[in-house]
Predict the structure.
Amino acid sequence: MAETRFLVDTYQEFIQKEGIPIVEDFGIDLLAVETKPWPRMGGNGAYTLMKGRGDFLDTYILDIPPGGESVPQKHLFEEVVYVLAGRGSTTIEDYDGNKHSFEWGTKSLFVLPLNCRYQHFNTSGTTAARICSTTNLPMMLNAFHNDDFVFNNPFKFPERLGEEKFFKGDGEFLPMRPGRHMWETNFVPDLGTFKLQEWKERGAGGSNIMFVLGDGTMHAHVSEMPVGTYKKGHRHGADFHVFAVSGEGYSLYWYEGENEIQRFDWKHGCVFAPTNMLFHQHFNTSTEPARYLAVAFGGLRYPFTEDKKKTFLGMDVDVKAGGRQIEYEDQDPRIHQMFVDELAKKGLKPNMDQFQIPVLAR
């Protein structure tokens, strides 16, 4: 008699068979993760799972050796790629056999249009390239629990390819309102230099842009904090993967009603994902503006879940008014003092005098 299948996680079964490291934590320095040979993908790889990833998403690292290439892939799950180190190119083959190629480098962002065949190439003869992908493979495998359906499905999605310019680093600006302006494309050559839009409501001279990638359900946005500043505290559902792009700093996190405040320090190469409805707040402690990339499932065009709709409607609205943001005047007095003390270690001063912020009595 066959063993009874019970409480099966098809995704976990799949990645265990892949034979590469599986790292799980609240936050991870992706540049420090050890990778192992990955026959299915080519090169070396590791699964890097955030505790706040939710039910839909995962991330993995792929190392492509100097002059090397990945094994061609095609799959029925969405994938957004962020380049951690190195340079290379990717070729995407559409459903008519036409090929679209683009060259990427460190801090590039691109999408792999749904169910199109693709292949990555390392164009350096001396330096390995490391990329990190955020995908909704867990959702697809656990929904259908059939590998062939996910990896060998013939269905075509021609609308996902978009215009040819989307593969060339160009795109289309879609004006909405501060915090919701969008840029539609398939490829961003450098997130460190991409032009952002002002977003005063999120605090302290910050700016951002929302991306629509491959007309997909994956969300991505980039935000920037000027020198000596920090964002307002906020919360949302699980699965927002926050990648540090430039500068360095830290993020604080806590649950509502808890007294303990925890901390995660970040720089380029680090990623973390706040767990469901965990308050968190980002701080720039560097001598340059700090940028971060956030990748999640469900975006402004296709939010997918009711919670994502509430997040995008309430991400810059005071929690006292039913939103998901804590205004500066309402934050824990310890928070600002931590920031002042941290900057002082580096001989820096905060640039937050224009805000009414509670401070600890000394």
In short: The radius of gyration is 21 Å. The longest helix spans residues 333-345.
